[in-house]
Amino acid sequence: MKTTSDTGGLPAGAPSDLPRYESYSSLSTFEGCPARYGFRYVERLPGIVTPSQYAFGKAIHAAFEAFVRARIAARDSWLPGPDAATIASAFGIAIDGSGCTADEIARYRERAGPVLARFLEAEEASDGEPIGVELGFGVDVDLPGDGGRSRFVGYIDRIDRRPDGGVEVLDYKTGSPRSQADVDADLQLTAYAFALVRGGVRDPATGAALPAPARVGLYFADPGITVWTRRSADQVAAFGERLTAAVRRIRLRDFPARPAEGRCRWCEYRTTCLASAAPAASAATRGGS
Ligand code: SF4
Hints:
Elements: H1 4-7, E1 21-23, H2 24-32, H3 34-42, H4 52-77, H5 84-96, H6 102-125, E2 129-142, E3 149-161, E4 167-173, H7 180-184, H8 187-197, E5 215-220, E6 225-229, H9 233-251, H10 261-265, H11 280-287
Parallel strand pairs: 1-3, 4-5
Antiparallel strand pairs: 2-3, 3-4, 5-6
Helix pairs in contact: 2-3, 4-5, 4-6, 5-6, 8-9
């Protein structure tokens, strides 16, 4: 019989292969609850995710991405730029294919109207030129001693070039906006700065490695606000140490459960995990099984 003490919330059984890559998402999952990391990245269990859980955010990302891609293509080919119909169409395709119910889709379409309009206003007001969207990166990370290497990978929502030649990184967020202090400490932005500083992000037009970002920011889609911040060399170095420490623990298969009601409530393994602290109602109503 499996127990939470000897499996850390994971089902007992033969060890599965460890991932060869880490990402901001896997790192933050591990730091939040190592057992959740084990479920998702080692055991690769599907978990319970209802279609509506991330549908709006994904559709908004798809719409922004389509619009900026069209902007880049128009600029490079001297064609007319995208307009409100471009972004509305991209959102519609994404949300209609999300698997949500008709009522949910209607609600999301209503919510999206002002969100897309504010994005277009922000595009109009920006003096940055988009370099790329959904830019993939990968950097090798040496582990201390004879620990070998890991690889840190990810995708950056958007990178722009400033009029002075500097580059800026932007990540889109749906949901409540966060304070300047929160954005200053945001780990995802530090992860992206780390990738740029390590030369892991390339300009799609030239293939050249992009430089360290002059600034990084989060665009909060609902209010249409961007909160900018910067990342120091010390912050970037500290991120590298944090990453290598996590990888070392992952390689030791150190996956204890870290139950907390607020965390377990939204965990996709709340009905599977033996250590779950999700409220019964949460597991029953949101779990769907
Ligand atoms: S239910 Fe809670 S303890 Fe279990 S894996 Fe998820 S976050 Fe961790």
